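User: Can you recover a sequence for this backbone? Please restate the input before giving your answer.

Assistant: Of course. Working from this structure:
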């Protein structure tokens, strides 16, 4: 049996589940701190991934609930890419990353877990960050508590974005 210590999950497990806008966790992110929203602009925002591929994994999403890139306005596209640039800088400064994976999964066939609200994944990477755990143990290791990373990144983003 495999065990991974993830104490932040207990809050989710024991919390009251509220019906929201079609069950979209991006639209339901009303309380920014509780939802791990790092920064919010008029057309887009950055939110931490509660189930990260690696420490510091965030998503940049439009404020509007839209699924297709062709539906985006120029303002939404520009604000989202501006936030990708900003969070990339912050991740380099705060987490000493060696690289980033930046990507969009459009549609279930492309691996989208949330097809209805398009978002951009920004995943920090370090040399040597892949080891035997995901391959032989089917387990990912996250090196810092989710809320510690949130506080660190949010503080830096407030300085940069306001």
């Amino acid at each position: 049996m495999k065990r991974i210590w993830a104490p932040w999950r207990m809050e989710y497990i024991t919390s009251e589940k509220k019906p929201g806008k079609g069950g979209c966790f991006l639209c339901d992110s009303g309380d920014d701190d509780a939802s791990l929203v790092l920064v919010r602009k008029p057309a887009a925002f950055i939110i931490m991934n509660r189930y990260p591929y690696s420490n510091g994994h965030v998503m940049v999403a439009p404020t509007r609930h839209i699924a297709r890139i062709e539906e985006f306005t120029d303002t939404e596209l520009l604000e989202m890419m501006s936030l990708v640039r900003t969070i990339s800088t912050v991740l380099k400064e705060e987490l000493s990353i060696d690289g980033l994976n930046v990507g969009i999964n459009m549609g279930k066939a492309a691996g989208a877990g949330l097809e209805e609200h398009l978002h951009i994944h920004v995943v920090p990477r370090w040399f040597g960050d892949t080891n035997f755990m995901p391959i032989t143990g089917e387990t990912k290791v996250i090196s810092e508590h989710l809320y510690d990373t949130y506080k660190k990144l949010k503080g830096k983003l407030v300085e940069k974005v306001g």
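That completes the design. The chain has one domain: 26-161.
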